[in-house]
Every structure is written in structure tokens, then in C-alpha cells.
Amino acid sequence: MKSKLAVAILNWNGKNWLEKFLPSVVRFSDGADIYVIDNASTDDSVKFLQLNFPSVKIVINSKNSGFAGGYNEGLRQIDAEYYCLLNSDVEVTENWIEPVLNLFENNPDIAAIQPKILSYNDKNKFEFAGAAGGLIDNLGYPYCRGRVFDEVEEDKGQYNDETEIFWASGCALFIRSKDFWNQNGFDERFFAHQEEIDLCWRLINSGRKIFYTGKSKVYHVGGGTLNKQSAQKTYLNIRNNLSMMLKNLPFPKLIGLIFFRLCLDGVAGIYFGLKQGFPHLWAVVRAHFGFYAQASGTWKRRQKHQKSNFYQSKWLIFKHFL
Predict the structure, then answer these.
(1) Torsion angle (degrees, nearest 10) of CA 281, 285, 288, 289
(2) Full DSSP string of 89-117
(3) Could you tell me which of 101, 88, 78 has the C-alpha nearest to residue 25?
(4) Which residues have C-beta within 8 Å of that of residue 281, sequence separation ≥ 6?
(5) 147: closest CA among 263, 228, 236?
(6) Could you tell me if 118 and 217 are in contact, meaning their C-beta atoms sit under 8 angstroms apart?
(7) Most distant pair of Cα atoms in the chain: their distance
(8) CA pair distance 289, 71, nearest whole angstrom
(9) Which of 12, 128, 220, 320 is the most interior residue, by most CB within 10 Å?
């Protein structure tokens, strides 16, 4: 029987996170089916779940194919009207589900919704990965209400609204299952990072809406798999961002903007190299070659229509750093 909501937590060697945060999910998710999608863990996560959380359903993937591929493989085995893709390092709160479902039920044109995401380690501040809803500037740089680059705001109720956004964070992403599969899920080539932005952009290009609700609140640790200082994270973010732009930008803006971004990335690579060391400079170089290697396949994934007004802010990087 098809369930109303499936809360799906992707796990890879995350027994400690499950032990710490799964109790809040079980406690505050009445009426939802809770799944852990295990991404071929090599620790004893599955055994731990079987012994301690018998009500939680377990889906075991054949291999670790990252966030994007892991969710695609696992969700194929879950039958629900709505999915909630929830990171294993997220603490949920009482009544976190009802406001989201109400927003879905009253707005059939909404495909995906993000709750307010606060920092678990500093609960008065927004969390880096999503904050109060994702936006994007005219150069393709993602940012959030409540977080611009590495600077986060204190939560003073300024984002207690319900409003349309550009992208919903993958750390707590509610989405209609039919919309997820109408877009063939995440682009598995991304592996991890910005795959949710790409998915939301595709949904917007197809005429669907992405929303945020401040009536639902969760707390996120962040950096559970790759911390913000990881050169691999630098690589994935730059490669995936360029691929996302090639796939989703309207053609008249595409060539000049991609070229400009490649130049800016070169400057950023030098900055990263001086500030964080050679591995980060090399990560930028690798990201560009990774983007070139994927370019043909990315082009084939372009939809028939792209929105011309895709951004909410202009020249964000220059306003912020200059």
C-alpha cells in the first residue's frame, strides 16, 4: 500500500549519526514511514538498526554511489506520495512534518519544500547547507536566505515566512515522488553536492515551484561526510556547478557566462591555493577537466525549455568580496 510520506535517510558508515539523531525522527514523525537507505556501509549500521529500531525499514543498496545515485537506487524501492530526503546528522523537532504537508496539499503546483535549517552546534544561527531556502545569482553561484558564502545569520524570526525559493537543500528535502521521477531523479554523475540544486532548477524549467516554510524547523550538524575544508568538496562543487549551468541555462546566456565563470574559477583557484594549500588549487583544475569530460553527456540532458530569469541577485560574489 502506498504511504503518504516516506522519510528516507541515506546512510554510509554513519552508525554514530543514526544512534544520535534517529530517535528524534522516530519520535516526531507520526504517520510517516521511516526508511534508512544504506549505501553499502562497511560498519555495523545495518545490524545496529535491526537491533535497536525495528520500526525503521531498511533498504540496502548494492554499492556506494554517492548521495545522488544512492538516493535514486534506494527510492526506487519506496512507494510513497511524498519523499522527505533527510541527512543522518539532522535533529528534527515536534510538528516538523505537518506544515510541509499542508503546504503541499494546498498548492498542487509546488514540487519541493524545504524547512528552516538551523545549526545543531549553534542553535540560534542558520546552518550553512540550506538555511532559510536556496537562491542563485546571475553568475550561477548558489546562496541562501540567512547564509551568503560562509557568513550565516542569527535566527531572529526574519525568515518565519512561507515563500518561493530557487532550490531546497538536500539535507531536508521534501518532494512529491511523481515530480522526482518525472525528472528521472538526481543526476548520478554529480555523486554529491549541488545535485539538489540541479534537480530544483530542472523542476523550475518544467514549470514547477520550489518553496520554503519557516513553520517547520530542523537542526543540522553539517560536514558529516565531507567538511567545508575538503579539497574533494571543492572539486565536486565547482565541477557540478558548471555542469548544472550547462544543462539548465537558457542558450543565449550560456556561452558567455560559462566562459566568464571558468575565468573566475581560475582566480578562485589561486586564492584557494594561497589560503588553503595546493590541493585546493589542484581541485579547481581537476574540476574543470571533469566538467569538460562530462560536457557532451550534460548537453544531451538539456530540457526543451529553460527559464530566462533564473536568478534572484546580480553579481553576488563582487558585492560580497569587493
Answers:
(1) -150
(2) TEEE-TT-SHHHHHHHHH-TTEEEEEEEE
(3) 88
(4) 269, 270, 272, 273
(5) 228
(6) yes
(7) 56
(8) 26
(9) 220
CA 79/CA 73 separation, integer angstroms: 13
Lowest mean pLDDT among 50-64, 66-80, 221-235, 242-256: 221-235
Give Cβ neighbours of residue 298 (< 8 Å, ≥ 6 apart).
189, 243, 246, 247
Q: Which of 320, 322, 321, 317 is nearest to 141 (CA)?
A: 317
Residue with cell 506544515: 99
> CB of 235 within 8 A of CB of 283?
yes
Rounded to whole angstroms, the Cα distance separating 71 from 212 reads 22
Mean of per-residue pLDDT scores for the chain: 93
Query: What's the chain's length in residues?
Result: 322
For CA atoms 87, 90, 91, 92, give the dihedral sign.
negative
User: Which H or E run includes 35?
Assistant: strand 33-38
Task: Return d(Cα 267, Cα 284) in angstroms, integer.
Answer: 10
Residue type at 308 in one-letter notation: S
Task: Kindly report, residue by residue over 176-200, the tens digit of the pLDDT.
Answer: 999 999 999 999 999 999 999 999 9
